[in-house]
Amino acid sequence: MSTARVVRRVAVFGGTHGNEMSGVYLVKRWLQNQEAITRPSFLTVPCIANPRAVERCRRYIDVDLNRQFTQEHFSMDFPPSTAPYEVHRAVELNKKFGAKGEAFDVIIDLHNTTSNMGNCLIIGSSMDSFTLQMVKYLVQRSGLVCPVFLTENTVPQLEMADSKRLGVHGISLELGAQPQGVLLADIYLRHERLVHTCLDFIHKFNQGEVFPPETLEVYRILHVVDYPRNNDNDLSAMVHPELQDKDWHPLKPGDPMFLTLDGETIKYEGDSTVYPAFINEAAYYEKGIAFWATQKETLNVTELQVKTK
Amino acid sequence: MSTARVVRRVAVFGGTHGNEMSGVYLVKRWLQNQEAITRPSFLTVPCIANPRAVERCRRYIDVDLNRQFTQEHFSMDFPPSTAPYEVHRAVELNKKFGAKGEAFDVIIDLHNTTSNMGNCLIIGSSMDSFTLQMVKYLVQRSGLVCPVFLTENTVPQLEMADSKRLGVHGISLELGAQPQGVLLADIYLRHERLVHTCLDFIHKFNQGEVFPPETLEVYRILHVVDYPRNNDNDLSAMVHPELQDKDWHPLKPGDPMFLTLDGETIKYEGDSTVYPAFINEAAYYEKGIAFWATQKETLNVTELQVKTK
């Protein structure tokens, strides 16, 4: 049996990336009218995380905000005036929602991807029973198929430093495929449903409901695979049509992986089957990521109840 | 019987919009190796139309290049130094490809859209037999389903001033759905096939082949339909899930058209059936366009042969 503290404050972020539109529009709507995200046992605060990027419908102004939630930035009271806009913003968000502020219990961060990821739930730890039980609740009760992406830090260079680290618990709801700068009603409605289901879980938890032990299937991050590139570091191949949109499907040794601009197939030559995610995400060209290789595993989720005194 | 002059010079543009990736990568490849686009009877010149926007993977730097091909800019030798980058670029392109330069016979401009437009062929006139016969050839011989979008100027405010006006004849190959900043192999291959088919047509035309009279089904532009907006000019509704991806399908009075952010359906209340195109194109949010209403009509295409002497 695990216990966790009662949840007093929940933040729902949209526009951490300013051109991921369903989170932007949901949060804008909730800022006008909070009724739909209000639950009796805790406070819910909607927030446009990167307002300047939202205004310009761009992913970011200077640097990716969702990699600025570092210990270094958390320790700052005031960044140097020459620091990138998003560093200033990470420090501000920490002063409002993080350890230097009201120390919110849960951060729910709404994202979109151009990859065919479906209703992906991203979590950063396999050890946080509260978040795991919330994820299991989403899987069982949202009525949506929800692949779970575990970004637990097995290799240091994959350090995420994302918004989830602001809160005690955190989850990203990463829905796709949706082009940058486009609002798809279907994705907006699924994003809305997932947030409501998270809030319902939290309220039940606060009320003392016991969540029994469970198992949870997750895709754990292994490593990134980049596009083949030429001497100018430009792409010399594309995601192969047989791999495109096949996020979460097994990629076996010998399967087609890339197609060169001249039409030649490049096969996957790894030793074992992997499960690609974030295949052909627009924002990852500059990061050197054609997809993330993951492995499938089953986590044990311990029984959970709210801590009483 | 119509005649047209023999074709001496053809330009293939990619990156008129810097984040429309299949044209960008095809043209980059052809700049390295022109063999695939070489035909014996004419010169083919590939060109990255907006190189700075391509470098930054943005639609444009200052203004939409594809609306700068105006008579005013065509008359300029040197724009004011304070003019937007794309005005400078339109003047440069005119000096190379247009009337102030080598007066290219055909401009083929490669575009992508986030809308589900398929292999859309865009033409600006119902009077140019050469272009109509080339389009008919694409429809019949490319092996691809190709809806034809006719932007002929029935209402002055829809003045396009696009790249096609640089050449004597011109066509845009507008393929989708593809997110901005993403290269989809499937679309890249279809774009390549359409360009090859255009070049094959032109070579046959130059060789004296007679193209018989034909009819051609086109979607002629009627007017634009904007999103419902609030007092801040921000969207208050999205494209309805039943309309999303239904480019070229009939939209009948009473059909669902938008879904408000609060979940209410807004129906189409026009008097007659229209055929929407460019539904939910990312770049058109700022232009105030949710989709373009078109009507279906059949053009007569006159017999065509190259002019001798």
Overview of the structural elements:
The structure is a homodimer of 309-residue chains. Chain A is of the alpha/beta class and 309 residues long. Chain A is built from six helices and 14 strands. The first copy, chain A, has helices at 21-32, 51-55, 71-74, 85-97, 129-141, 185-206; strands at 2-4, 9-14, 43-48, 106-112, 118-123, 148-150, 169-176, 214-225, 237-239, 256-260, 265-267, 275-277, 291-301, 304-306. Chain A has a nine-stranded mixed beta sheet, sandwiched between helices. In chain A, helix 1 (21-32) crosses helix 6 (185-206) and helix 5 (129-141) packs across helix 6. The A-B interface holds A 25, 28-29, 57, 114, 177, 179-186, 188-189, 234-235, 238-241, 244, 259, 261-263, 280, 282-283, 285-286 and B 25, 28-29, 57, 114, 177-186, 188-189, 234-235, 238-241, 244, 259, 261-263, 280, 282-283, 285-286. Chains A, B: Zn(2+) binds at residues 17, 20, 111. Chains A, B: Residues 8-202 form the Succinylglutamate desuccinylase/Aspartoacylase catalytic domain. Chains A, B: It is found in: Cytoplasm.
